[in-house]
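Lecture 7 notes: from sequence to structure.

We start with a single chain of 376 residues. Read the sequence below before looking at the structure.
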Amino acid sequence: MIQTIGRAEPGQTRTPAFAAKGLLLAALALLLPACEEEQPEVLENIRAIKTITVADRGSGQQRRFPGVVEAVDTSSISFEVAGNTREVNVNVGDRVDKGQVLATLDDKPFQLNVEGAEAEVGRAKAQLAEKETEFVRQKTLYEKEWVAKAAFDQALAARDSASNQVSYAGSKLNLARRDLEKTVLEAPFDGVIANKFVDPFQEVARGEKVFEVYAEGAMEVVVSVPETAIGEVHLGLPAEITFPSEQVASQKGRISEVGSVAGDANAFPVKVALADPPESVLPGMTAEVTLILGDNGGSTSYLVPVSAIAAGAEPGQGYVFIFDEGSSTVKKTAISTEGVEDNRVNITEGLAPGDIIVVAGVSFLRDGQQVKLMSQ
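Now the structure, written as tokens:
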């Protein structure tokens, strides 16, 4: 038989268990309304983003310009003293290491200068010793009042003059030794001999160019762009470089320097840096640079930082997040890429001039997320 717990009949006594259960039911009744109250809304943290604006890129008309290959880092080397060359140890095209001896001068005259300066120092020191002895003698006599102060002063001046002569002779000796060291010409850095302007037993003047050395690896092509087209040339503009020799493949490059002053025939000097030149590309070679200028309906590409790209599933595909100023949200947009240079990705599809793209923290964003500009 199931016993029902309810109100006690008159005359019945309530047990402690019955009272405890009643209190529990009352507490639950008070808690239920509190649980049914609406929980406070958790506000989403609005992420601050760093952006750049996509700029328009010239495309369309192709123009070709002849040029000459030059090394980016080139140094002219010369002797710091004049003399007759005794040895020339390198030829054009030789690779040299920093500190390697390239040429030497006849050092016999310089050794004689050192010996003469050493003798001069010895004579000056002997005179100083003599004057020092005479000064001590005159000082002793003056202190005993056996000579006049004029004699003491004369001895003091003679000693000081001899001391100065020793210092002067020492400086001449140091200079002679330095000139002797400068008869040896060393390579200032690792590189390749581009030009040689001296032969053995040839007299050279101080500062006369003896060698040209260039550092391997960094190469550029120098071209002249006429004034009618220079307005369409800008830094970073892609270029294709071809060479007359069939053994050298065409190379990719970008404009690295645009001259601001016209030269011959009102043409401006423009330098095109090669992206990854092979060892077969050497300074002095002729080349032809192809640039895409104007806007005649050709394909346009844009350079953006690698940090702005979220990787896609397929090679050459990815995503960027474009910021919408009206809604303060970002839109995940598919793009197509073509190569990476200097931590920048060349985007061929998916962007347009004026697009504001996120360039940091793209892995933490999602399509449609509300954001704010870092400057805000």
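The chain has four domains: 51-57+299-373, 61-72+218-293, 75-106+183-214, 108-181. Keep this in mind for problem set 3.
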